[in-house]
Amino acid sequence: MSSHYERLAAMNKAHVWHPFTQMKDYNNSDPLIIERGEGVMLYDVQGRAYYDGFSSVWLNVHGHNVPELNQAITDQLGRVAHSTLLGMANVPAIELAAKLAQIAPAGLTKVFYSDSGATGVEIAIKMAFQYWYNRGQSSKTGFITMNQAYHGDTIGAVSVGAIPLYHDVFRPMLFPAHTIPYPYAYRHEGGAAAAMEDTLDALRDVLEQRADEIAALIVEPMVQGAGGIILMPPGCLREIASLCRKYGVLLIADEVATGFGRAGEMFACDHEQVSPDLLVIGKGLTGGYLPVAATLATGDIFDAFYAEYEEQKTFFHGHSFTGNPLGCAAALASLDLMQKRNLIEEGKGKAVFIRQKLEALAGRPHIGEVRQLGFMIGIELVKDKRTREAFSWKDRIGVRVSQRARELGMLTRPLGNVVVFMPPLASTEEQLDAMIHILIRSIVDIT
Ligand code: PLP
Tens digit of pLDDT for each residue in 355-376? Predict the structure, then answer.
């Protein structure tokens, strides 16, 4: 008789098509099937325990199965699981919007809900576009993005995406965007200062020539996530923001990955006191519990849509589950818990702890660069440390390190040759120590 695991594995193989996964590889491997979670641990159906070393794709804040979040969702479940936000409201959605307006960078007072980071980005793109249209400046239709940008997988988000492997195949069906270089210091001959100068020069060029055709610039502030956990040189975000302001182009900050303490402050924009016109949040908003995202807008943006019904300036956009009460209740409880546990401030000390522990990697032969901002860590592995020659795609170096980490009891997912470490913010130093031990051992064993 086949085991519970074997039955599930067979059904999984027969019916589930996994995201961002080459199914031929996957179907020839033993699938990991998670059954439950507790704190920073996940357990598979065979009872094996794993540290959640990538916060279930960068979103878990407090760990799994958190009593306070469970309780908030259960309480809300006893009232109503869902009702629409189209022309009516629900209690948690109102309370959460007020809370977000309070903690977000200055001026972002209006909250438009959605259900994933990508839909939050679609909303920001459409809002920016219609903002200019409603204001009678309908030539401002273009967007600026950055090399290696990732903003999600829906068509608008892919249009402003710039990772060739993910996005090029779709190019013929997308709207074109102006792509400027991202300041990738490690891969720039002149280092951080020169990389930043190139970025700002390119931005200035586009803006000087075409500002009247451009609606907005979209950026992952301070850290480019899926592009390889690449840190912006200090001051760069502030310069980008001030150029956008100077030339009358809206700034969209995509904080889906960086928000809610992940990059060391509540929002990555807080590092440089930047207040964007539109802010996209998701992932950690609910502590990583439920699919809620939001696009925050300034009063100025909101006012461009605020008109007589007959003028047809309405933002005609919405999703069935927009403002879902269960999700909003989870988000409120998560923010409450962040505050009670002082997670952002305590996280700063833990980030230093992580940095010190990772110093053990510095002298090793295939470590190109260890990059970190807060709880976002990327370790770029290189074939040749001196010349910085990259491993080839065929080496599968990141995948092999992740596989080794899984054998040793920690889950993570690489970005090409970059090993990713993104533990839940609530991890204790003891847990971080154990996770880093596995991380280092996996890298040493494979390289
Ligand atoms: N934007 C950024 C910066 C992201 O990192 C991601 C996901 O990783 C997204 C958008 C898309 O979010 P979602 O996967 O919730 O659609």
Answer: 999 999 999 999 999 999 999 9
32-62+342-446 is a CATH 3.90.1150.10 domain: yes
Using the atom order of ligand 1, give the atom closest to the CA of residue 255: 3
pLDDT category at 223 given cuts 50, 70, 90 is: very high
Is 302 in a helix, a strand, or coil? helix
The whole-angstrom separation of Cα 106 and Cα 276 is 9
Which protein residues are within 6 Å of ligand 1, measured from CB? 116-118, 121, 150-152, 220, 225-226, 254, 256-257, 282
So what's the pLDDT on residue 163? 97
Every domain range in the chain assigned CATH 3.90.1150.10: 32-62+342-446
What is the predicted pLDDT for the residue at 446?
97
Closest atom of ligand 1 to CA, residue 121: 10
Which residue, by CA, sits nearest to atom 10 of ligand 1? 151
Annotated binding site for pyridoxal 5'-phosphate: 117-118, 254, 319-320
- Fold exhibited by the domain 70-340: Aspartate Aminotransferase; domain 2 (3.40.640)
As a whole-number percent, the residues of the chain with pLDDT over 90 amount to 99
The pTM is what?
Answer: 0.98
What was the pLDDT predicted at 318? 96
Name the token pair of 137: 């400046």
215 phi and psi angles, rounded to 5 deg: -80, -45
Three-state SS string over 337-406 comes to: HHHHCCHHHHHHHHHHHHHHHHHHHCCCCCEEEEEEECCEEEEEEEEECCCCEECCHHHCHHHHHHHHHH
What's the CA gap between 442 and 412, in Å, rounded? Answer: 11
Amino acid at the residue 29: S
Euclidean distance between CA atoms 124 and 131, whole angstroms = 10
pLDDT for 382 equals 98
The binding site comprises 117-118, 150, 254, 283, 318-320, 413
Give residue-wise pLDDT tens across range 29-47.
999 999 999 999 999 999 9
Q: pLDDT (tens digit, 9 = 90+) per residue, 110-154?
A: 999 999 999 999 999 999 999 999 999 999 999 999 999 999 999
Start and end residues for every CATH 3.40.640.10 domain found in the chain: 70-340
| E strands in 147-262 | 178-180, 214-219, 223-224, 230-231, 250-254
